[in-house]
Every structure is written in structure tokens, then in C-alpha cells.
Specification:
The protein folds into four domains: 197 residues, MoaB/Mog-like domain (Molybdenum Cofactor Biosythetic Enzyme, Chain A); 58 residues, Molybdopterin biosynthesis moea protein, domain 2 (Alpha-Beta Complex), CATH 3.90.105; 84 residues, Molybdopterin biosynthesis moea protein, domain 3 (Molybdopterin biosynthesis moeA protein, domain 3); 71 residues, MoeA, C-terminal, domain IV (Beta-clip), CATH 2.40.340.10. The chain contains seven helices and 27 strands. It has a six-stranded mixed β-sheet, sandwiched between helices.
């Protein structure tokens, strides 16, 4: 459904939108979801987002093009794995009863390489030289590793006894016919591709990668490589967000917008119909130049909140026509944290994944950190999973790009009056 909007003739006027999912989004608002400080909870904001969006289209793709995508339907194998009884060792296929008296001397009646087609049954009282993965002949019920023999070619001397089915991988031993190889929403990772290929699956139905457009706002932003003028800073946000989003989405457009609400809104409208998610950074706080917030001030299609988190307090969510928009604060660290807490789960939902969130672990904090009285603090940190510890940077601030470089987790400190002391167990969201 195309967005409905009108841009007034006067450049001072603000276009008005009617989003398809506005009613759904507003239905998620609950009385009492704002605390006494005027902040909504992190979980409440995330629930509003995830409750308003759904997975996109699914398509059939060749297996090797499915890497990293989510299955669009369950996959069930139609053949047993392995498809025939085969040897797990290089050695000799035997009847276990023939090698109970040691040393056992058996005539070698056949050679069976991997890939052998029709295999003759094993004559009683003989052995067949066999390679790993080769079919075990009828009449044999065990495989003697070559290391347990004299490696004879015509006659073999066996020095150790064994029981039936030893070193034999039976038909269907891994997965019988009808086993589920993947559920709807499961990620197609390298291991699953190997499993699907072993079951003869050549293509899969998967959810399409969501398409995103990324916008930073600010008259002060210039691109890296350009000389800095008075009052200018380099635009790091679009580069940061592209790097973050690329793991779960196809980045279709990246643009830097001036501090003008009409220009910003026009740019969002032009691209909205071609993507599945709009991401903006900056322009939503309490200053005089907040183009994103001002652009939607009268339409009601984007809701702006103060969320109980630090950094990342100002947040926005709504729809431009039928396309969801996530409005993030503009400071680099705020943008990074907001992406991990809100945008990434939204991209995973749009991409059809059943698992939306990063893994969280409990680790021992090595350096004391201050808590906020009314907000959850999210701190980039370095986790040592072998030692079970986590360390945060010495200095924090939503503007500090240096804080995030080299980190591998985000520490989560719930609001409270007491500091998180060194030695305390804390929650950390792993980023890698």
C-alpha cells in the first residue's frame, strides 16, 4: 500500500501521513506504561516495535544462496542418513563371530572402496578390505580397523576381537526418513547447509533479507575525506549503521539529511516504498533543530518517547505509509546501543528468524560501575568468556566513539541506587 501524504506549498508546512499500522501500534499502548519519571521501559518500547511488524516474503533459492537467511518452511528429509550401512574406518569388513578366537586368519575375498556400487555379500569365514564410507556388504556385521591387523592383502591376520556393529554406521543411524532438518525461522548457517546437502536438498524456501534505508541528520556532518570547516564534524553514524545493519539486511540507501523537516520528510517518503525499514539517527531530542521529530509533529504516525535507558533515552517508532521507521538518537554510542536493543531484533523479525536476540551471559565485573537511579545503563565492554569476566571502558559518554571500538559485548546494569561493584555478577549481551 503506497503512503498517503501531502506536502504543503509553504516550505514551513509539515507533510501529514496516515500509516497503515497506526491503529495496531496505538493499541499496544497501555495505561500506566510510563513511570513517574516520564520514561517508558526498554522492554515496553521493544514490544511496541515487535508487535507492529511481521516477517516479509519468502522465496525459493538454491541452497548455496540461503546462507544466513531464515527458513520459510520446515524441511523434512526424504532419505535416511546415512542412506546405507557404511564403514566408519579403513579396515576389514567381517562377521564378528569369525574373529572371537585370536589370532584370527581370514582370506580377503573383496576390496570395497568408497563409492562402490553393487557389493557382493561377504562369504562366511572371509574378510573384505573396506575403506571409510564404503558400503558394508551383506553378511558382515563389523569392521576391524586396519591398525588391529597385519594389513594383509590376500590373507589378513586379526589380533583383536570385537562385537557386532562395531565401526558400522547403520542406515538411518544419523537421521531416519521424516526427520526435521530445520524448522520455520531457523537460520541457514554453514552447518545446516551441510546437513541439507547431505539429505539431497538442492533449494530451500527462505525469508528474503529485509531492505533498509539509513539516514543521518545534521547540517554539521561532512563525509570522511572532506576537509572540516568551522563547526563541522565527520559523519560516522551512517558508516556505523551500515556496518551494523549489513549482517541482517540489505542496505539499499544511505543519506545525510539537513536540519530541515520538510527536506527530511520528503527524502523519507521517496524511499519508503522501496524498503522494509527506515532508520534515522538524530533529530529527535529536545533541541531547536530536530528535523525528524518536527516532521512528524502533527501527523501522529511516529511516536516519540523517552525510554528508561542510558545512552539512548530519546527514541521514535512509527510508519511512513506501510514502512516502519525507527528513529534513533544521533550520538554515536547511543546509535550503536539503540541498534542492538531495538533495530537488530526488528530486522530479525522482518527477516523471519525465530531467534531475535543476542545471547546473554552472566559474568563477573572487574571494575566498579555507577548505576542510574531511573534508567538501565548499557555499557560497551570486553568479555573474557574463558575467565568468566567483563571489563568496561574507563570513560563513558554517548558521544565517545572510542568507547565501542574493540568491544565484544554490551553490559546491562538495571536501575538502582547502589553501584555495580567489582566482583558482582552482571548481564552481558554478546556481540560476536
Amino acid at each position: 500500500m503506497p503512503p498517503r501524504y501531502a506536502i504543503a506549498a509553504s516550505p514551513a508546512a509539515i507533510p501529514v501521513f496516515t500509516g497503515r499500522n497506526t491503529a495496531t501500534r496505538r493499541a499496544l499502548r497501555q495505561d500506566g506504561d510510563v513511570n513517574e519519571t516520564g520514561l517508558i521501559g526498554v522492554g515496553e518500547h521493544l514490544s511496541r516495535i515487535l508487535g507492529s511488524i511481521e516477517a516479509g516474503d519468502s522465496i525459493r533459492l538454491p541452497l548455496d544462496e540461503c546462507l544466513g537467511l531464515a527458513l520459510g518452511e520446515a524441511v523434512v528429509n526424504s532419505i535416511p542418513l546415512p542412506p546405507f550401512a557404511n564403514s566408519s574406518m579403513d579396515g576389514y569388513a567381517v562377521k564378528a563371530a569369525d574373529v572371537q578366537q585370536l589370532p584370527a586368519e581370514l582370506v580377503v575375498s573383496a576390496d570395497i572402496p568408497a563409492g562402490a556400487g553393487a557389493v557382493e555379500p561377504l562369504p562366511r569365514g572371509t574378510a573384505a578390505r573396506i575403506m571409510t564410507g564404503a558400503p558394508v556388504p551383506a553378511g558382515a556385521d563389523a569392521v576391524i580397523p586396519v591398525e588391529w591387523t597385519d594389513a594383509g592383502i590376500h590373507v589378513v591376520v586379526i589380533n583383536r576381537r570385537l562385537s557386532a556393529r562395531t565401526h558400522v554406521r547403520d542406515r538411518g543411524d544419523d537421521l531416519p526418513v521424516g526427520s526435521v532438518l530445520g524448522e520455520t525461522g531457523d537460520v541457514v548457517d554453514a552447518g545446516r547447509i551441510g546437513l541439507l546437502a547431505s539429505a539431497g536438498v538442492a533449494e530451500c524456501r527462505v525469508y528474503r533479507r529485509p531492505r533498509v534505508a539509513i539516514f543521518a541528520t545534521g547540517d554539521e556532518l561532512v563525509e570522511p575525506g572532506t576537509p572540516l570547516g568551522p563547526g563541522a564534524i565527520y559523519n560516522s553514524n551512517t558508516h556505523l549503521m551500515r556496518a551494523l545493519a549489513s549482517a541482517d539486511a540489505s542496505v539499499e540507501a544511505v543519506e545525510t539529511l539537513p536540519d530541515d523537516p520538510v527536506t527530511a520528510l520528503t527524502a523519507l517518503v521517496e524511499v519508503a516504498g522501496n524498503v522494509d525499514l527506515l532508520i534515522t539517527m538524530g533529530g529527535i531530542s529536545a533541541g531547536a533543530y530536530e528535523p525528524i521529530k518536527q516532521a512528524f509533529a502533527t501527523s501522529g504516525d511516529i511516536d516519540f518517547y523517552s525510554v528508561g535507558m542510558q545512552p539512548g533515552k530519546p527514541q521514535g517508532f512509527g510508519f511512513v505509509g506501510a514502512t516502519p521507521l525507527l528513529a534513533l538518537p544521533g550520538n554515536p554510542l547511543s546509535s550503536l546501543v539503540s541498534f542492538e536493543i531495538f533495530v537488530r531484533p526488528a530486522l530479525r523479525r522482518l527477516g523471519g528468524f525465530s531467534e531475535l536476540h543476542r545471547q546473554s551471559v552472566r559474568l563477573q565485573l572487574l571494575n566498579t560501575q555507577r548505576r542510574s537511579l531511573d534508567r538501565v545503563r548499557f555499557l560497551p565492554a570486553v568479555a573474557d568468556l574463558f575467565a568468566g569476566t567483563v571489563t568496561t571502558a574507563d570513560r563513558h559518554g554517548s558521544h565517545r566513539s572510542s568507547t565501542a571500538a574493540g568491544t565484544n559485548c554490551i553490559l546491562e546494569l538495571p536501575a538502582g541506587p547502589a553501584d555495580a561493584r567489582a566482583g558482582e555478577l552482571v548481564n552481558a549481551r554478546l556481540l560476536k
